[in-house]
Design a protein that fits this description.
Elements: H1 2-8, H2 17-28, H3 30-66, E1 75-79, E2 84-88, E3 95-103, E4 107-112, E5 126-131, E6 136-140, H4 146-155, E7 162-168, E8 174-183, E9 189-193, E10 203-206, E11 211-216, E12 219-223, E13 227-232, E14 235-239, E15 248-255, H5 258-282, H6 298-309, E16 324-326, E17 332-334, H7 336-345, H8 347-352, H9 365-377, H10 383-443
Antiparallel strand pairs: 1-15, 2-14, 3-11, 3-15, 4-8, 4-10, 5-6, 5-9, 7-8, 11-12, 13-14, 16-17
Helix pairs in contact: 2-10, 3-5, 3-9, 3-10, 5-6
Keywords: Bacterial flagellum, Cell projection, Cilium, Coiled coil, Flagellum, Secreted
Subcellular location: Secreted; Bacterial flagellum
Pfam families: Flagellin_IN, FliD_C, FliD_N
Length: about 450
Amino acid sequence: MASATSSISGLASGLDTASIIDQLMQLEQVPQDKLKTSQDSENSVISALRALNTDTALLASKAATLAKASTWQTLQGTSTGTGVSVAVTDKASAASFSLTVDRLATTHQLGFSTGAALTDVVAGSQIKITGSDGVPHSISVGGGTLQEMVTAINGSTADTGVKATAVRVSDGSYRLIAESTKTGAASAFTLTKDDGSDLLGGAAVRAGTDAQINMGLGITATSASNTFTDIVPGVNITLAQNTAIGTTSSVTVKQNVSTISSSLSSFVDQINSLLDKIDTQTAVKSGTTAAGVLVGDPTARALRDQLLNTVFGDSTTSMATYGVQTDRYGKLVFDATAFEKAYAADPAGTAAKFTSGATPAQDGWVARVSAVSKGASDGLDGTFANAINGHTSTVDRLQKSIEDWDTRLELRRSSLERQYTALETALSTLQSQSTWLSSQISSLPTYS
């Protein structure tokens, strides 16, 4: 229809009717343009809310971890002996003791005296492995060659606790070595023919041993492995395989608050970063500075207030004694020295001021931050989700209005095009009639 108008534009009137229609349509389109501007504004708000929601969800995740009592297990074990390592559990308490390594845990080994080729038949169709518990296991070895026997021992589904290797020696033959898969005195076993007679001429034995450490004053401790579990409650000592016999070590278990202090400092920085973003998005116009996208939106401002209010457990106490407080700029400040002093004086009591309590009313500061940030960022009924849903509904409603205006404007353009087409047609007809009359008048005879 636009092309038809263009073809007759000004044909009779000399007017650029196409441009006139376009200008009139620009005026008609003003209400729709305002709707589009409102829609763009709403989409900007949605994008800003989603970005804040993501940051709040990350804060909630960090808070949930830091609010767990297990995260506050700050006891750390140290050892002065090379090859002696210390691990502590949540059952540990401060401790200090010395030890000397008397013996490492070893496996039980059998080295058989008669060499053979891998293809030599050295046993019947079965062999027997008997563990220290006295339970025999008959193992099928096929044709009974040395290679078949090694393969059968290593591939057995029975719980023999034994592995085997054929080792080539200087004369080119192979000697069988069988070894327990576990260490300790209880790892002993025998490997014989199925009838109990010697295999490959019998074996030399290296008996498995338990590891042993000497705690002094005639006190020793043994372990089937090189790990001594709960050597004192909650403390495990592990000896490396290359630990020298006679190694002495001083073991100390004490509080190491630096890790948790560092985590709290990072946590406060994360909160302040979120507060900065909220301030930017909700800022009012000032001088040449444009207003934030979320100016006037209550969701982000409410979260800001709630996060700052978490430093007050109730109306009378705050977290200042434990190193967390607000400053005059509305941000959080973490004083590591104050925190570490409070923790050194009362580790359990200080941890309780931060972690989850038996009830929400007993929650510490980090747990309160966790509750606030989760309440804001929850994907189903969080305050951000509700706000985003509300603005999304507005965008949908505006889109419907914009589409309605598209139809309305199309009809208006069609109406204007018909009107101007009719005008050009009428003017063209009048011009034709005028030309005809002029020609008729000119053809009349003249009289002097």
